[in-house]
């Protein structure tokens, strides 16, 4: 088979040959629409844009030359030979396919791809998916609206000003004319919400129901939805379709072009999607879209990318890339300007419009931006922005990897999650500023790298609580919760260029050209590969790995993605005719590349399945799901932490309570111990006092019962006391013994034991009275005094004890009532109650002792009185005569004191009384002594308990 294929030529539309002479120059760019109102209505796609409307040119005003296709000659049909293509000739027997209508993108074409019965050819008008002729298609679907009517025209004579108007683009911070970075004439994206950016001439509403949409998009969307809703294409292997590659060619305006000869050689028809060249190697080239110099970016986007973007949002992978010679408008088309936003900003607007219009799904967007510069990949979002003052910081080398799930991907690459159009535009503007740009012969700000913006769209059905879209869920037969991941790649390739003078530019250019050549080669071989495969062969080697660009584009080129290629050309060139010729050659090469891409790249793109949870196929990638799971895990962790914290706090609280309780218990115990100690002391003191009293009683007993001499001497003493006319005064106003009882238990006994009671008795007078009388009266008086003072002390002591006991009882009560709430009937409380009871008993005992003592005192007093009486009766001389007047007065005062001496009024003298009653007194004394003994014994028994009784008994018993 010959390597040169003559492409079949379809019959040309029946356009009348030009009848008017060529105009000198179509200076006025405004075209008057010649479309009939009826046609406008039927198309429904009349662009409201004043820009578009104003540029409509009357077909009558345009020269129209016969289209080559109208002749049936094949001489002008472009042929692809080895020399034509950078990648070699078209496969043998392979003819260029007819462009698939945008209507078939991504809707599966209704025909079976490159069916042998419908050999596709870009020059064939009969190979449309619906079998309609190009003429029919052109007349039925006027793509450009009314302005397209009769738009087959001659390109205006060009001028040599390549790069004119270039200042609108922003590729450097120094001159930031870009849409995304603002310029003197533009709105800065950084400071302006994207949503308020100047809208393109047309409304950017991506809704099918929106105020504006291209007719094709609106119609096809509805058709798609109908088809999908009816499930008609569920099992259709062509559901996602083959041949979905969309190829468009855009012609850059040539500002101030001078060489009109070149212009005359070209024909550009947007309406017929035709570019025809009648020069050497001339031919007609038909694509899905041809944009002439008057078409703005919005129109380019609508026709070439809008639908793809929408499909990406629905779950397909999509790739848009701009290809063309340097300076032909790739960056202009992809980025645009503030007043004429390009594909990237318009796609972003549409993405967010779609999200707003799809409330039943939730979305997560992440974006990365890389460039391939001199065959090295740079992350445009990672490092600091390179500027004129210095190079960017070195970056970690980014490599391309491949796995079955993700395909080919660059790593490590920074991905930023974006939540608004403004944010996304800012991220991209940042990347734009970091991109390598330099002035070249053809472009003052030429992109020196291939730039790839990747927007990953993750989406999932909202839960039952969300706005349910039954139709959609039925259609996709997906249970809620699955995450769908798709990627939109927007690529601005570097332009092919001739060798530059500058070494650096030369190096860059060689890398650029090499990668573009590889791209062309891969695309050229794609169809061969298919053919080989069809025959059961292995297929030709596809050199994807020969360049980073082709490696990165591999998934798209091999059919996993919907692809839209925008080729940019500039007709004619400035400068010498050699340059002009070379330019034309490049343009033809671009056109051939576009044709080959259209013919060879076959898309098998499938809608991404929703991965169910993290375990699904795309689960590892589904950030949305990962985030959801992460959030759930974090929530769980938070709850656990909160619980643990609460438990810790509760434990702390409990510990604190327990500590407080322990402290309270300890304090109570201490208090209790103190009280017990005090009581012990008090008990000891009382015991000693009792012992002391016992001794006193015993002494008095021994005086009265056992010792006659003593008794007489005591009687004498008594007599001497009584002779003082009952003048009794306590010999000691204080009882040191009593004090000692309280302070130094056990130390006082010897000091108060009768008869050695010299304490407090005033010196010689006391001695005298004792010595002189020798009857023990003084001793008895002293005993009485001692007892009285003792009594007073005891009273004081008892009142002190009572007070303390009262306090102890109060605190115990409060403690008991407090702890009763928690522990009823605890042993502690029992102990406290018992202690209280014991103390009460002790008080009672002390009171009883007190009473006993009082009785004792009264008994002693009466005994003393009797003694005195006996003394008075027994002697004439008054022993009291020898007492001092002071003693008498003291004795008198004692008589009037609280210790009242009971007894009958004295009617006889003491001596008489002694005489009469000496025997009786003796008996009485004995009786009193016994009585006292008994009383004390009883008391001791009653209060002291067994142990005390045993210690005291022997004393009293022994005395008896
Ligand atoms: N359709 C157009 N309308 C108006 N001006 C355009 C158009 N296309 C390109 N230009 C202008 O042409 C100049 C070069 O365009 P651009 O930088 O986009 O080319 P390029 O293909 O990206 O070049 P390179 O490959 O060197 O980066 C710019 O000044 C741009 O404004």
The count of DSSP E runs of length 2 or more, i.e. the number of strands, is: 20
- The CA-CA distance between the termini, in Å, is 159 Å
Query: Helix fraction?
Result: 40-55%
The ligands bound in this entry are: adenosine-5'-triphosphate
* Unreliable runs: 1-241, 464-480, 612-620, 705-774, 875-914, 945-960
| Major β-sheet profile | 10 strands, mixed
How would you name the CATH homologous superfamily of the largest domain? Kinesin motor domain
Number of domains: 2
Report the mean per-residue pLDDT as an integer. Answer: 62
Q: Which fold name fills CATH's third level, the topology of the largest domain?
A: Kinesin
* Strand percentage: 5-15%
Number of helices: 23
CATH class of the largest domain: Alpha Beta
Radius of gyration: 63 Å
CATH architecture of the largest domain: 3-Layer(aba) Sandwich
Shape: rod-shaped
Give the class from helix and strand content and strand pairing: alpha+beta
Essential attributes:
4-stranded antiparallel β-sheet, alpha+beta, 20 strands, binds adenosine-5'-triphosphate, 10-stranded mixed β-sheet, 2 domains
Structure, explained:
It comes from Aaosphaeria arxii CBS 175.79. Residues 30-52 have a biased composition (Low complexity). Required for assembly of the mitotic spindle. With 960 residues, the protein is an alpha+beta fold. The protein folds into 2 domains: 153-213 and 239-612, Kinesin motor domain (Kinesin, 3-Layer(aba) Sandwich), CATH 3.40.850.10; 668-959, no CATH class. Helices cover 46% and strands 11% of the residues. It contains 23 helices and 20 strands. The strands form 5 sheets. Strands 3, 8, 9, 10, 11, 14, 17, 18, 19 and 20 form a 10-stranded mixed beta sheet that branches. It has a 4-stranded antiparallel beta sheet with strand order 1-5-6-7. A hairpin with a 3-residue loop joins strand 12 (399-403) and strand 13 (407-411). Helix 15 packs across helix 16 and helix 15 crosses helix 23. The protein is rod-shaped and about 180 Å long. It starts with 36 loop residues before the first helix and ends with a helix. Residues 1-241, 464-480, 612-620, 705-774, 875-914 and 945-960 have low confidence and may be disordered. It binds adenosine-5'-triphosphate. Adenosine-5'-triphosphate binds next to helix 8 and strand 16.
């Amino acid at each position: 088979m010959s390597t040169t294929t003559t492409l079949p030529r379809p019959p040309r539309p029946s356009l009348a040959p030009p009848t008017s002479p060529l105009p000198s120059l179509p200076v006025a760019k405004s075209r008057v629409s010649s479309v009939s109102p009826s046609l406008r209505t039927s198309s429904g796609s009349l662009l409201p844009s004043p820009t578009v409307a104003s540029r409509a040119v009357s077909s009558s005003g345009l020269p129209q030359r016969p289209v080559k296709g109208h002749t049936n000659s094949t001489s002008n049909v472009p042929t692809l030979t080895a020399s034509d293509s950078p990648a070699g000739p078209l496969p043998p027997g392979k003819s260029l396919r007819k462009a698939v209508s945008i209507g078939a993108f991504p809707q599966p074409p209704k025909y079976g791809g490159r069916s042998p019965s419908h050999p596709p050819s870009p020059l064939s008008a009969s190979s449309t998916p619906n079998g309609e002729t190009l003429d029919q298609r052109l007349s039925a679907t006027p793509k450009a609206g009314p302005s397209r009517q009769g738009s087959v025209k001659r390109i205006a004579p060009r001028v040599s000003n390549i790069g004119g108007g270039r200042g609108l683009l922003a590729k450097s911070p120094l001159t930031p004319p870009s849409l995304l970075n603002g310029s003197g004439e533009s709105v800065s994206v950084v400071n302006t919400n994207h949503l308020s950016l100047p809208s393109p001439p047309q409304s950017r509403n991506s809704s099918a129901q929106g105020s504006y949409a291209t007719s094709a998009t609106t119609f096809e969307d509805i058709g798609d939805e109908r088809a999908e809703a009816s499930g008609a294409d569920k099992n259709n292997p062509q559901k996602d379709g083959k041949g979905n590659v969309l190829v468009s060619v855009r012609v850059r305006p040539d500002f101030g072009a001078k060489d009109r000869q070149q212009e005359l050689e070209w024909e550009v028809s947007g309406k017929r999607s035709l570019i025809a060249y009648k020069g050497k190697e001339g031919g007609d080239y038909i694509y899905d879209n041809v944009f002439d110099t008057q078409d703005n970016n919005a129109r380019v986007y609508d026709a070439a990318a809008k639908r793809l973007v929408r499909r990406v949002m629905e779950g397909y992978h999509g790739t848009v890339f701009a290809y063309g010679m340097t300076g032909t408008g790739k960056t202009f088309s992809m980025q645009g300007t503030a007043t004429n936003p390009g594909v990237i900003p318009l796609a972003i607007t549409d993405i967010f419009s779609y999200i707003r219009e799809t409330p039943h799904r939730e979305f997560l967007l992440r974006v990365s931006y890389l460039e391939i510069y001199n065959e090295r990949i740079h992350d445009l979002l990672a490092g600091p922005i390179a500027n004129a003052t210095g190079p960017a910081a070195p970056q970690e080398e980014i490599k391309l990897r491949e796995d079955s799930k993700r395909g080919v991907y660059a790593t490590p690459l920074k991905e930023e999650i974006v939540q608004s159009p403004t944010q996304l535009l800012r991220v991209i503007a940042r990347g734009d500023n970091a991109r390598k740009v330099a002035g070249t012969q053809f472009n003052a700000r030429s992109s020196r790298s291939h730039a790839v913006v990747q927007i990953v769209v993750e989406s999932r059905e909202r839960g039952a609580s969300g706005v349910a879209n039954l139709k959609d869920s039925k259609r996709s037969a997906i249970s809620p919760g699955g995450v769908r991941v798709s990627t939109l790649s927007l690529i601005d390739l570097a332009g092919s260029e001739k060798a530059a003078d500058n070494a650096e530019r030369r190096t860059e250019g060689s890398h650029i050209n090499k990668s573009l050549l590889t791209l062309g080669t891969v695309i050229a071989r794609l169809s061969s590969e298919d053919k080989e495969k069809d025959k059961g062969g292995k297929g030709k080697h596809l050199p994807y790995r020969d360049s980073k660009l082709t490696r990165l584009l591999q998934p798209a080129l091999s059919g996993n993605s919907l692809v839209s290629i925008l080729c940019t050309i500039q007709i004619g060139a400035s400068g010498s005719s050699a340059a002009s010729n070379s330019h034309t050659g490049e343009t033809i090469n671009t056109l051939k590349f576009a044709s080959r891409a259209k013919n060879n790249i076959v898309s098998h793109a499938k809608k991404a399945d929703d991965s169910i949870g993290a375990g699904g196929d795309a689960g590892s990638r589904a950030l949305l799901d990962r985030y959801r799971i992460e959030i759930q895990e974090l929530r769980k962790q938070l709850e656990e932490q909160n619980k643990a914290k609460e438990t810790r706090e509760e434990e702390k609280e409990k510990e604190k309570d327990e500590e407080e309780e322990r402290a309270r218990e300890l304090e109570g115990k201490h208090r209790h111990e103190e009280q017990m100690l005090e009581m012990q002391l008090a008990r000891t003191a009382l015991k000693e006092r009792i012992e002391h009293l016992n001794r006193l009683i015993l002494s008095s007993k021994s005086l009265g019962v056992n010792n006659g001499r003593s008794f007489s001497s005591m009687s004498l003493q008594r007599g001497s006391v009584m002779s003082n006319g009952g003048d009794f005064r306590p010999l000691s106003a204080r009882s040191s013994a009593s004090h000692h009882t309280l302070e130094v238990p056990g130390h006082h006994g010897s000091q108060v034991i009768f008869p050695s009671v010299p304490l407090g008795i005033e010196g010689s007078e006391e001695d005298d009275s004792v010595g002189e009388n020798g009857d023990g009266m003084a001793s008895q008086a002293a005993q009485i005094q001692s007892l009285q003072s003792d009594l007073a002390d005891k009273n004081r002591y008892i009142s002190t004890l009572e007070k303390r006991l009262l306090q102890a009882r109060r605190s115990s009560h409060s403690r008991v009532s407090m702890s009763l709430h928690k522990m009823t009937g605890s042993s502690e409380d029992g102990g406290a109650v018992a202690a209280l009871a014991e103390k009460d008993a002790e008080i009672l005992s002390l009171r009883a002792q007190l009473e006993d003592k009082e009785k004792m005192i009264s008994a002693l007093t009466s005994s003393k009185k009797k003694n005195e009486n006996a003394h008075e009766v027994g002697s004439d001389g008054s022993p009291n005569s020898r007492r001092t007047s002071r003693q008498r007065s003291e004795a008198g005062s004692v008589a009037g004191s609280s210790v009242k001496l009971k007894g009958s009024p004295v009617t006889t003298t003491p001596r008489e009384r002694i005489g009469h009653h000496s025997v009786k007194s003796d008996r009485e004394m004995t009786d009193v002594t016994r009585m006292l003994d008994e009383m004390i014994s009883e008391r001791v028994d009653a209060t002291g308990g067994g142990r005390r009784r045993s210690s005291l008994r022997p004393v009293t018993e022994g005395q008896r």
